[in-house]
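Re: [ENG-882] Designed sequences occasionally contain unexpected residues at chain ends

Forwarding the minimal case from QA. Structure tokens:
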């Protein structure tokens, strides 16, 4: 995990919890419309990948238990994890790229309806991502992956001032490079090859030499639209298009996208595919269905989008007709830490990753409500353009007082709690019932995020070793952790 120089360790904020009467009067617990539906409260659990699907992306009983458990807390809305829109293997993450995924997803919808007593609206986040390979062993990279070209020979000849390199055969050059010092590799390999060696090969939306990348603008609208239709037929209340973090659509929006085909360069061009995907989705699901978007208030990388870009996109998304705008921050590959050999680069290990899931080891601002100013700016821009599309804030929201103040000040319309809901999915119910003192408070130290990084079933350190001998609990695959928080008697 990336760290500030001289971080300050913040305490989680002390708070006074409301009585049930105060909660009943609070803006946080008033209904709000998002597009054609109404949420019973302005509370939200944003998407969180729990690593519980089958290797084929199908819903498992553990998925049902996980989402059912969040639903018991009765947040206004619950967003199902980033779910792949393509019909390609992607490990134990949910998928929605074929009709065979619908029955499992339908069961998930029914589970949430039942567990929340119909109080929680259920959305599903849909995502496309490009190929990311694991960091290779050096030997393997030079034996198999490097495409040897004459420029490599020229670079060697220049580095050693010896033209005989131009005549040397491939096997000899590969054998030499395997043991060559870093300074030589830096002179011989180009930037992308060095990155593939040190971090693992990663596709970009700007790889115009690859046909499938060139064709993304032709294929993605149809793929997203088909996925959204499946979400609707499975019974979800809406879809959330994942335009945030390190994935395909965020990469189109990024200021680093310089595609020369009209889908890169200016803000307008960068928004073009995201808007075309939205239009295709809307056309297929109709106007009476929620279509929301999650995107970044700031990419937090050199040369990336800043708040001015995000404000522009917010206005254009609102103008297009998105039913809500959910704002995240950072979470990019560009500043990620080098992975170990055999592991894939993880987009939450650099400063941008910190900003996505900030911890208590922070700068003077601390992790709590850190992204709210971005949301407020986008909300002002959207409002200024004459739109009333609701905005959802996330990032270190943990107390009632804090969430209520953000809504009261008009900085955001809905408060999203991710890790706090993972620490205690009953937060919403406890606070509403005037029993906030019983909330299990998230410590914002990111044990859960480390599990995500290792692709292990996500749990919370506050409850995953508690009462392991309770009958009928399910355990993680290593048998050491319970997969769900203990039941709360209300
Ligand atoms: C384990 C874990 C998995 C996450 N998975 C997703 C995801 O699938 N999609 C997404 O948009 N954000 C994802 N996030 C980010 C959260 O939705 C949220 O934006 C972030 O944790 C900051 O909010 P918080 O401070 O309330 O935790 C994930 C976060 C965690 C901790
Ligand atoms: S593991 Fe830590 S950061 Fe994650 S939800 Fe639990 S207390 Fe919060």
């Amino acid at each position: 995990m990336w760290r500030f120089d001289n971080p300050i360790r913040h305490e989680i904020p002390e708070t006074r919890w409301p009585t049930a009467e105060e909660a009943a009067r609070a803006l946080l617990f008033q209904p709000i419309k998002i597009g054609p539906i109404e949420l019973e409260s302005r509370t939200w659990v944003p998407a969180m990948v729990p690593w519980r699907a089958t290797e084929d992306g199908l819903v498992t009983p553990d998925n049902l238990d996980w989402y059912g458990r969040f639903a018991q807390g009765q947040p206004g809305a619950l967003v199902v994890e980033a779910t792949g829109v393509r019909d390609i293997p992607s490990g134990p993450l949910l998928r929605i790229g074929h009709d065979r995924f619908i029955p499992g997803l339908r069961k998930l919808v029914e589970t949430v309806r039942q567990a929340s007593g119909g109080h929680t609206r259920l959305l599903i986040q849909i995502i496309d991502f490009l190929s990311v390979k694991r960091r290779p062993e050096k030997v393997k990279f030079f034996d198999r992956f490097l495409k040897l070209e004459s420029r490599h020979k020229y670079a060697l000849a220049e580095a050693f001032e010896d033209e005989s390199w131009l005549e040397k055969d491939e096997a000899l050059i590969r054998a030499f490079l395997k043991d060559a010092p870093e300074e030589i590799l830096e002179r011989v390999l180009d930037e992308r090859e060095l990155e593939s060696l040190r971090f693992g090969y990663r596709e970009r939306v700007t790889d115009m030499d690859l046909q499938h990348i060139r064709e993304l603008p032709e294929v993605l609208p149809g793929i997203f639209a088909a996925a959204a239709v499946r979400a609707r037929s499975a019974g979800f209340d809406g879809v959330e298009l994942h335009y945030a973090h390190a994935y395909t659509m965020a990469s189109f929006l990024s200021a680093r996208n310089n595609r020369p085909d009209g889908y890169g360069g200016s803000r307008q061009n960068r928004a073009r595919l995201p808007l075309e995907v939205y239009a295709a989705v809307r056309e297929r699901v109709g106007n009476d269905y929620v279509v929301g978007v999650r995107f970044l208030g700031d990419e937090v990388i050199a040369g990336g989008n800043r708040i001015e870009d995000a404000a522009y996109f917010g206005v254009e998304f609102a103008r297009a007709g998105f039913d809500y705008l959910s704002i995240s921050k950072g979470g990019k590959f560009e500043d990620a830490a080098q992975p170990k050999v055999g592991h894939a680069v993880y987009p939450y290990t650099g400063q941008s990753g910190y900003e996505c899931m900030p911890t208590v080891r922070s700068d003077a601002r601390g992790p709590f409500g850190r992204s709210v100013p971005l949301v407020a700016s986008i909300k002002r821009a959207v409002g200024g353009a004459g739109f009333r599309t609701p905005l959802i804030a996330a990032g270190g929201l943990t107390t009632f007082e804090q969430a209520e103040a953000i809504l009261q000040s008009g900085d955001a319309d809905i408060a999203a709690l991710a890790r706090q809901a993972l620490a205690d999915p009953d937060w919403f119910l406890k606070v509403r019932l005037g029993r906030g003192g019983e909330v299990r408070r998230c410590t914002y130290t990111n044990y859960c995020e480390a599990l995500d990084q290792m692709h292990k079933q996500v749990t919370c350190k506050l409850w995953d070793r508690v009462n392991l001998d309770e009958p009928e609990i399910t355990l993680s695959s290593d048998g050491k952790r319970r997969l769900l928080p203990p039941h709360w008697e209300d």
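QA comment: On inspection the terminal residues look reasonable. The first strand starts at residue 8 and ends at 9. Proposing we downgrade this to a documentation issue.
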